[in-house]
Amino acid sequence: MKKFAIALHGGAGTLLKENMTSSQEKAYKETLSGALQKGFDILEKKGSAINAVQEAVMHMENSSLFNAGKGSVFSASGTHEMEAAIMEGKKRKAGSVALLTGIKNPIALARDVMEKSPHVFMIGQGALDFAQSLGYGLEKPDYFYDELRYKQWQEIKDSSKFQLDHSATKNSKFGTVGAVACDGFGNLAAATSTGGMTNKISGRLGDSSVPGAGNYAHNKTCAVSCTGSGEYFLRGVVAYDVACLMEMKNKRLKEAAEEVIHHRILEIGGDGGLIAVDAQGNITLPFNTEGMYRAYQTSTGEKLIAIYKD
User: Fold this and answer.
1) I need a labelling partner for 191 at 20 to 30 A (CA). Which of 19, 37, 59, 175 fits?
2) Which domains does the chain have, with CATH numbers?
């Protein structure tokens, strides 16, 4: 087997050590560690990259700490509109879902769209009908209720404002989750899931569920999962931009990812970060914010779990 590796993120933003208690920091790191272990165990047993990223993301979706699945923020109508995408690098198959309510693990449904339908993207009621045809149950609204998320919404409810979960005015919970992996056979995969923005208008989509913008995988280049200001990541086609710089400009993974995050996305006003891995198991985790929940592990013994910039 070749070198294998997995990396994951739980959102980027104004993450400052002075704004977090030791118990909060411990909880975040434990959840990141649990997700990392779920994915790495699969790779270690010669499992696929696509299975590894799905399991890692599902672990984070099942936690109220991150803005995805159980921890999703409130929309303007007081609901939880989730989105997710998954992609494999060998044949570049992808599955995406958006405007979901009641689905415990959106990333699992995205995987089913990829493998059990002829489509790439399904949204709203159509996606829910597809889920129910496969036997998915719908969680009640109280499953997704979180007191801190609710308070965030109450601060700007009935206004035209919306709140990025990683913005400078927040110091409690931050964002989108994602994972990328390279398995022992050189296959790549990426998965991303989010609850969007607090008080967002119904129907708004970010980059997380859009292949090429917030999520991308191609065995010839890399697998990428993004987190940040979605509108800018959509406009910058950020995930594909990294892969394109590698393919068209012959840049290495780290160089390409840093060019996109520290220059190209900043030029149009975007902030955030990404995680990426190539087919040799190299990993990079650039971000242009104060911090990013992030972790990685490789078959050669490298391991990291971190939150802050330094």
Assistant:
1) 19
2) 5-308 (3.60.20.30)
